[in-house]
Every structure is written in C-alpha cells, then in structure tokens.
TrEMBL record:
Keyword Cell cycle included in the entry's annotation: no
Gene Ontology MF term list: protein-disulfide reductase activity
GO CC terms, sorted: plastid
Subcellular localization: Plastid
Domain spans labelled Thioredoxin: 45-173
Gene designation: LOC108828703
Key words, A-Z: Disulfide bond, Electron transport, Redox-active center, Transit peptide, Transport
CDD domains with a match to the protein in the record: TRX_family
InterPro entries assigned to the protein according to its UniProt record, in alphabetical order: Thioredoxin-like_sf (IPR036249), Thioredoxin_domain (IPR013766)
Protein name: Thioredoxin X, chloroplastic
Signal peptide stretch: none
Primary localization: plastid
Organism of this sequence: Raphanus sativus (Radish)
PROSITE patterns registered for this protein in UniProt: THIOREDOXIN_2
C-alpha cells in the first residue's frame, strides 16, 4: 500500500506506480511502531483515489498525560516543593528538536512514574523562568530535588530515547533514587 503518514513520519514507496489489488499490503509492525505518535494515514486505493483513515491500533496510540505542562504560577508547588525528583523539560511549540524528543520523554515519563516526575514548561509563555534558570537552547532539561537544581543535571538539545534513559538513570543514581 502506498501510504503517507501525517506529522513528521512519512512512509511511502519509492515510486508511485499504478496500483493493482494484488500489490496492496498493510503497514508492517515496524512502520506502525515508527509512526506511533501519528494518527492519520493517507492511502491510495486500487483506483488511485486517496483515502484518509484514523489509526485505531491501541498499542500505538496512547492517551493520557504522563507529562504535565506547567507555568510560572505552578513552578514552586510542582517542582520546588515536590517530595520526589522533578525533571523539567523546557520546550517551545516552534522547536523542531523539542517535537522530536517529546515521544521519548512521554514514554520515559510513564516508565519512571514511581521514581520521577517529568514536567514541561513552554519557553515563550514563561519568560521569568527562562531568565531565572538561564535557558539558552531548547529542548533543555534540568533535574530538581529538594527544591534545588541538581548540579550537573542540565542537558540541552535533541536526544534519543536510549540516551535520555541513560541520562535519567545516571541522574537518579547520583542522587540515590535508584
């Protein structure tokens, strides 16, 4: 099946030849997994017409908010007064690397749910926090524990899920929350 998946992932055959019913194949599990954050699938049926469908595979679409977005008004109560470590992810809606990192951050938020809180803060909507914590690049991660920034916890820029997990594990080990 010649197919285009919306958002950032595009899955398409290298050429768009006339389609015969014998050549229609479903997406492989690898393709579905790689497009987990995408929901709309644009397909070409056997007559060459485009059709749009909404993916309903429960294993690839997660609803829920593992990562809470907070602002300046909630920062003190959510981050500084928390009884457990809080990883703050500074992001912006226009930031491409922030969008790339978000699915990994969301997955790890659920994985570390019992040991760590992950929140995100919009760069443009919270200028006081940006200035106070000197956030110069995005995405920008800072770990807080007992109301203070953990020294050496800052991480800036795009990161893979494996590297993000390694980064979080190292931080949790350094503050003895393994």
């Amino acid at each position: 099946m010649d197919c285009i998946v919306s958002s950032s992932t595009v899955l398409i055959r290298s050429h768009l030849a006339p389609i015969r019913s014998a050549s229609i194949k479903p997406l492989s599990s690898a393709q579905v997994a790689s497009s987990a954050s995408n929901r709309h699938i644009l397909s070409f049926n056997s007559s060459g017409k485009r059709t749009r469908t909404l993916s309903t595979n429960a294993s690839t679409i997660r609803c829920g908010g593992g990562i809470k977005e907070i602002g300046e008004s909630e920062f003190t109560s959510t981050v500084l007064e928390s009884d457990r470590p809080v990883l703050v992810n500074f992001v912006a809606t226009w930031c491409g690397p922030c969008k790339l990192v978000y699915p990994a951050t969301e997955a790890l938020s659920q994985e570390y749910d019992d040991r760590l809180t992950i929140v995100k803060i919009d760069h443009d909507a919270n200028p006081k926090l940006i200035a106070e914590y000197k956030v110069y690049g995005l995405p920008h991660f800072i770990l807080f524990k007992d109301g203070k920034e953990v020294p050496g916890s800052r991480r800036e820029g795009a990161i893979t899920k494996a590297k993000l997990k390694e980064y979080i594990d190292g931080l949790l080990t350094s503050i003895s929350v393994a």
